[in-house]
Amino acid sequence: MRLFLGFLACTLTAPLACATDVHASPQGNERSYGQNYKDMVFATCVANAYQNEKGASTDAGSSVSALRDWTYYDLEKSPDAVKALVNSYLARDYKNPLVEAEVKGVRFDFLKCLDLYHSDELDALTKEVVINPGHTYRQDNP
Known about the structure:
By secondary structure, the protein is mostly helical. It is built from 9 helices and no strands. The protein has one domain (about 1-140): Four Helix Bundle (Hemerythrin (Met), subunit A) (Up-down Bundle), CATH 1.20.120.1620.
């Protein structure tokens, strides 16, 4: 009863703080294989884009590894296709004269990764290589 009253008080007084759990687990095992695959490709793009910035690259690379565990896809086709797709987006030459006047050498790599994430090419690749894209890891591994 005391636990319930504490929870009730927390949700009534500070619901956002109650929802924040520093010990929460990643939620990738609850998302579909298709969504995890797209997230994995996005994280791969970020890891490659920021490979010279150790903290960002390490974090994104670790996320790729976790997402790989929660995704069921064709391991033969996917790696080369992901590499080619990521490289093609990161090779794009995005320009913004207003920003470039203030920030020299800006590359817009994160924007390129977002564009990749929302691309028709990634949708097509996901449909091609992900097995049971609507299933979740949790669903298949109760």
